[in-house]
TrEMBL record:
InterPro entries: HotDog_dom_sf (IPR029069), MaoC-like_dom (IPR002539), Phos_Acetyltrans/Butyryltrans (IPR050500), PTA_PTB (IPR002505). It comes from mine drainage metagenome. Keywords: Acyltransferase, Transferase. The keyword Acyltransferase applies. This is Phosphate butyryltransferase. CDD domains: R_hydratase. Residues 17-110 form the MaoC-like domain. Residues 235-339 form the Phosphate acetyl/butaryl transferase domain. PANTHER family: PHOSPHATE ACETYLTRANSFERASE. Transmembrane segments: none annotated. SUPFAM superfamilies: Isocitrate/Isopropylmalate dehydrogenase-like (SSF53659), Thioesterase/thiol ester dehydrase-isomerase (SSF54637). GO terms for molecular function: acyltransferase activity. NCBIfam families: PRK08190.1.
Amino acid sequence: MLENRLFDEIAIGDHAELTRALDLDDIRAFASVTGDLNPAHLDADYAAASPMHGVIAHGQWAVALISAILGTRLPGPGTLFVRQRFDFLAPARPGDTLTAQVTVTAREARHKHLTLACACRNQRGEALLRGEVEVSAPRLKLRMQAPDLPQVMVQAHVGYGRLLSAARRHPPLRVAVVHPCSSEALDGAIEAWHEGLIEPLLVGPMARIRALAEAAHADISALQIIDTPHSHASASLAVAQVRAGHAEALMKGSLHTDELLHAVLDKDLGLRSERRLSHAFVLDVPGHPQPLLLSDAAINIYPTLADKRDIVQNAIDLARRIGIKQPRVALLSAVETVNPA
C-alpha cells in the first residue's frame, strides 16, 4: 500500500529509509535501461585494473534509492523534484547491502517545498553518498495499492564469455580465413586476432582485402595474404593450406557455403574423413548453465541412420571440447511419424 503525507503532515526531523541488496544483475539492468556502458560497471578485467580495483555500481543507482524513498514513503506519491545536490564518497559494489535515508531539514510554506538531507551507506556503515534535495510536497492526499510491475529478468550471455575465456588459455590457432571480402568477414577475423584467439591466414583477392582494411582503418600488415582471383579459388587454396598443415582450421568469409563445402568435401583434395561431416549451432541460452548444441541444421538434409550416428558423435566430441564433460543427447524430429530411414 502506498500512502503519501501532505506538507502540513510533515515536520522537521521526520525521516525514512530504504534498504536494498545490490548484485551484478542490478548493475547490468541499470546499464541496459540508461545506456551507461562505462566498463567500470560491466567489464571485470578493465575494472580490476582501474583505480577502483573491481566492478562498481553506477553512482546514480544510490540516487535512485533516494528517489524511491521520496516517491513512495516521504513525502510519497505525488512528490516532485525541484533541485538536488550529491557528493559521492565511495563506490557501491556487487554484494553490498545499501541503506538510503532522507531527513527533513527545512519547510517552505508558501510553495509547500521541503528540504531533505540524504545519505546512503553500505552494510559496514561506510558512507557512500550524502547530499540534499528540495521537493514539492504532494497537494492531494493519496492512499493506493502499489501497481503490479512486470518481472525483469537480466539475461546475460555468460556461456559465451566462458567459451572465450577457455579459448584464451590455449595458443592461438592458425586459421585460414576463406575469402574475407566483406567488412563483416574481415572484421570478425581481425577481432579474433586481436583477442588472441587465432592467427589469421587471409585467403582471397589481395587488393580487395587491403582496400577493406584501409577503409576500416585496420592495420593488417603483419598478416599473410594468399592472393586469389575469385571465391572458388579461395576455397580450394584455403583447404590446401589445412591439408598441408599450414593452417589448423577454416573460417568462412563472404562466399556461399556451397562453394566452401565443395572444396572441403572434394574426394581427392578435400578434408574428408571416415566420419560424416556435420554442422552444429552452439547456443548460449540465458539462464541455462551450459551451452546447448543443435545439430545438424545446415548440411545433412536427409540423414541415414549411419549419418545420424556420426552427427551425434560429432556433437558429443564438440561438447567435450568446449568443456561439457558428460553431454546429454536428445534426438528431435520435426515430424509426427517415424521415418524408417
